[in-house]
Every structure is written in C-alpha cells, then in structure tokens.
Design brief:
The chain crosses the membrane at residues 26-46. It contains eleven helices and 13 strands. It is α+β, with helices and mostly antiparallel strands and 574 residues long. Strand 11 and strand 12 form a beta hairpin. Helix 6 packs across helix 7 (290-305).
C-alpha cells in the first residue's frame, strides 16, 4: 500500500480542513480573475461569453448561477476498508502526469496568432500508461488601455488593463501502452512507462524531420532524418497510428492588470532656461502681483521655449500584478483501438484561473469537465438521420487548484517618439495542491441514457442554465427537488475524490514594436508587431487518501471508503 500512516495523518479529514481553507485560497484569486476578464470582455473586446462559463463566474463571486459546492464528508484515517468487488469502486485512477507545453504568439496590430504544442504522459494505477500529443493554432484580437497616476506619471506611476480573445483549433492523438500486463501492476507500470517515454522521443524526432525547411537536398536529408527517428521507436504496439484521434477547439478570454508606465528624467537645460526667464520677468516687474507675474512668466517661457517638456523620455517598464483567464475546450476523441475501440467521446471543459503578485506569486484555478461517450457508428448514423443519440458513458470531473511560489513577470522598453520597442520576460516555479472529484457512470438502460441526453441538451426537467453538479454534492442525501441527473448519479455513479501535488516550472520571453497615443492622464497603444514565447513543464503526483463513495445507505448518504484500486500502485517519479 502506498498510503501509509504518515500520509493518512496528513490528509485525514481533508474536506473538513482543506475544504474550507482551499475555498478561501482559490475563491479570492478566481474572483479577481473573473473581475479582470469580465472587464476586458465588456470594455476592450465586447465578446460574448458562453452562458455556462458565465454561470461559473457567478458561482465563484457568490451570485446566482450554478448552485453551491460542498466538499464535506471526505474520508478520514479510520474509515473501514471496502468489501472486495465493490461495484462502486472505480477500476483505476490517474497516479501522475508529466506535461510539457510550448506556446508561440505572434501579434500584428490588433490581430493575435497563436501556436501550441502539448505533450502529456499519464500513469494509471492498473499499470498502463497513456501518451497524448496535441498541436493547435488560433487567432483572435487583443487591446489595452492605461492611465497615469497624477503626480507620479513621470516615474512610472501608472496602471494598464489589457486583454485578448483567441479561438483556436488543433488535432493530435493518444497512445495507450499496456503491452506489459501481468499480476504485478507496479512492474507493468515501470515497463510501460519506459515504452511510452521512448515513443515520445520518437515523436519529437519525427516532428523535427517533418518540419525541415525545403531545400535542394531536403528529400534526401528527410529520409536520413526519418531513419534516425525510427530507431528511437520502441518495439511495441502501437507503431505509428494513435489509438485515439483527437480534435480540439478552444475559446479563451484573458486579461491582465500591470503596474508601471513611462519613465523620464528632468531635462536640466530646459529647466535652467525656464528658471532664467522667470527670474528676468520678476526683476523687470517688481510691482506686479503674483497672478500677473505668473501670467507673464508663462507667456515668456512659451514664446522662447515653445512646448518643450521639463523631462526627457527614458522608456517604460511594467510589473504584472493580476491576470485572469477563462477558457472553453471542446475535444472530440475517436477511439480506433484499445478498450474503447469504436467509441466517440465529446469532452467539454470550462476553466477559470487567476494569478497575482510579483516575486512570490499565488494562483488558483477552477475547472469543470463533462465527457460523454457514444458508439461512433451509431452516433454518425443518428446525426445523419436526425435521430436522438444514445450515450453509453458519462463522466463529470471538477477540480480546484491553489498555491504559489517564486516567479516574476516584467517588461521594459525604450521610446523613439510615438514608437516603442518593448522586451519582456519572466519565469518561476509554483507548488500547488489540486483537489479533484469524479463521477462516472456506464449507461446500460435506455431510461438512463435518455436522462443523460436530455441533461446534455437541456430538455425536459433539465434547464440549460442549471450548471454542472459537483460530484461531492451527490454523496449526501439528496434534497426533495433534486433533478433527474442528480438522482441518477447519486444512485448509480462511481464517485471518487483525489488529491495531487503539482509542480509547475515556466518561463516566458517577448519582444514587441508598438505605437502609443495619449490624452491627458489616459494613454492607449497597440503593437505593430510582437512575438511571445512561453514554455511550461507541469508534474502532477497523487497524494493523501484516494477515496470513493460506496453504495447509498438507508439514510440516503454514500459513505467514503479508501480507494484501494488506486493506492496499491505507486507513481514512478523521474
């Protein structure tokens, strides 16, 4: 067993302690993120936010929307072990994942073009390993506006509000490595992970070969490159074709508040000349009133010097204070081989995150995800003939992540008239705690399938704006007005509660050429051209007490029990 006494003592009563603390940690951050993003969406961009995403924003800031969130009742260290073969215990869980994400954003005027490559290796408690790779490209718009702080405007005393709207699409694949399948899941996991990582190296090498620039000997060099890449391929299935084809579309609205602005210094020559003019006016007008002197001095200075400023522009600098992002992902997965061969799964993800601080940064993320699986052939036929669909599986996942660590995001620039040249960058490492809840049900009854499909489509007793039920809210006795989907999941779904420690290392670099205009204390600008590169490495490892909810009891509640199918195998760290 991986979960020993120390681990149980640390994580016991997780919901009672961390449920309240975690709520406080992520609530403030995500509320700030929501405020920043909504300000951007409502003022700079005017984009329409998806109703379900808005529902989540309302939920976080405490207004009407998606209902409450209850994380009470998670398992403690003294809960009894579950009986063997409990149908409410899931067969496996995610032990850990390693993810690498590279993003390049090019901006031309107000147009934003992005490209992302994401690779993830996932370890499962049954000894299998999944490798997923998705690349995507997108486009959108971006804008910003700023204001100087009176009295400090010459020394960077200002703030700016910026935001962007991007819609992207991509494709990729998922490979399942389970060739090593014995009675020892721990040994299987180690062997399958080695195969997956070797195959990941092959994918990287093959991608470089396909990305070679054209040239006189491009075909010949490409063959040599491909041969070298093939040598990295492990001698296991799958060979080339992924088990699952993935297509993905993402809509993202983001915003940030930065503090800083233009920096200047006194122009000693101009200031000295103005002082000399003022002294000469006072000497020649000894009987003039203070008001008359001020008028004469101002007129004389304007005549001699014109509109020359007392200061010289030295450039600009900024320090990111708050940032927020809301995103909606729609992923379609068609399984060609493996345990889900012939199935099609639609995954809808709604996420809101925020980050604040400089030097020591804190952040939080809230995610809700719905995955619905159908028979692919039947789904295509039903779509063509206009028939109702018959889902075969439903999975709801919610997560809350909060924490922080050292990191900084800064910018600086120089001005040549209205044109600015800006450079920026940053990096950091954060340690966060991720709490995840999952409710999953396999649908074998036509009535249950209709209940799920009606909920997905917002039909019958399932209003479209009611939001996504939190798995933990389905564990206690249901209220008398519970909807059909709540009753179905409460009575039949496998419900689990998992905690992870997450480490994220990231760096960012940017270069931009911009143009700015100002009016009084307000200033606005845009980039003529810009490029922004971000690299992120994220490691997620299970910790604490994995738990699942047992069968409903006489009082309608579902007791939490240790998730032994999850805790019998340890994740392999590298």
């Amino acid at each position: 067993m991986r979960v020993g006494g120390a681990g149980r003592e640390r994580a016991g009563g997780r919901a009672g302690r961390d449920g309240g603390q975690g709520a406080v940690e992520y609530l403030g951050m995500v509320a700030v993120a929501g405020a920043v993003v909504l300000a951007i969406a409502g003022t700079a961009l005017g984009t329409e936010i998806d109703d379900r995403i808005m529902c989540q924003v309302q939920r976080v800031v405490g207004t009407d929307g998606c209902g409450g969130h209850d994380t009470e009742g998670a398992p403690g260290p003294d809960d009894p072990l579950p009986p063997g073969g409990d149908p409410f215990q899931p067969a496996k869980c995610l032990l850990s994942s390693e993810e690498t994400k590279d993003t390049v954003v090019v901006q031309i005027l107000f147009i934003k073009i992005s490209s992302t490559e994401q690779v993830k290796v996932m370890q499962w408690s049954d000894g299998s390993v999944m490798l997923e790779r998705v690349t995507s490209t997108g486009g959108g718009v971006t804008a910003s506006i700023g204001a100087d702080i009176p009295g400090l405007k010459n020394w960077g005393g200002g703030a700016s509000l910026g935001g962007s709207y991007v819609r992207s699409s991509g494709s990729g694949g998922r490979w399942l490595f389970d060739a090593h399948d014995s009675d020892d899941p721990q040994a299987d996991l180690e062997a399958n992970l080695a195969d997956a990582k070797q195959f990941a190296e092959y994918l990287k090498a093959a991608h470089k070969c396909r990305s070679r620039p054209p040239g006189a000997r491009s075909a010949e060099l490409g063959m040599i490159c491909s041969h070298a890449a093939d040598e990295k391929k492990p001698d296991v299935d799958p060979e080339k074709a992924p088990d699952v084809d993935i297509t993905k579309t993402t809509t993202e609205i983001s915003g940030e508040v930065s503090f800083g602005g233009k920096y200047a210094k006194d122009d000693k020559a101009v200031k000295s000349l103005k002082d000399d003019i003022a002294a000469e006016i006072r000497r020649n007008n000894p009987k003039a009133s203070p008001k008359e002197l001020a008028e004469k001095i101002e007129k004389a200075q304007e005549t001699v010097i014109g509109s020359a400023s007392d200061t010289k522009d030295m450039g600009n600098g900024s320090l990111q204070g708050l940032s927020g992002t809301m995103s909606k992902d729609v992923v379609v997965m068609r399984a060609k081989t493996g345990p889900d061969a012939g199935k099609i799964t639609f995954v809808y993800t709604f996420e809101m995150s925020g980050r604040s601080g400089a030097g020591d940064q804190t952040g939080a993320t809230r995610m809700q995800q719905i995955a619905v699986t159908y028979d692919a052939e039947a789904y295509d036929r039903e779509t063509e003939e206009g028939l109702p669909h018959r889902p075969e599986k439903l999975k709801i996942t919610t997560s809350e992540e909060s924490g922080g660590g050292p990191g900084v995001s800064v910018g600086a620039g120089v001005n040549t008239g209205p044109v600015t040249i800006d450079v920026g960058g940053g990096g950091g490492s954060t340690e966060t705690r991720l709490h995840t809840e999952i409710a999953e049900i396999t649908l074998t009854d036509d009535t249950d399938r209709e209940t799920v499909e009606d909920w997905i489509r917002g039909r019958g007793d399932n209003p479209a704006g009611q939001g996504v039920p939190s798995p933990s809210s389905l564990v206690g006795p249901l209220p008398s007005d519970a909807g059909p989907i709540d009753r179905l999941l409460h009575g039949k779904a496998q419900i689990s509660s998992l905690d992870y420690d997450v480490n994220t290392d990231w760096w960012n670099a940017s270069l931009g050429i911009g143009f700015g205009v100002s009016a009084g204390s307000l200033n606005a600008g845009f980039k003529l051209f810009g490029i922004d590169v971000t690299h992120e490495e994220r490691t997620q490892t299970i910790t604490g007490n994995p738990a699942y909810a047992g069968a409903p009891g006489g009082d309608g509640s579902r007791p939490w029990k240790p998730f032994t199918n999850c805790s019998d195998t340890e994740p392999i760290t590298t």
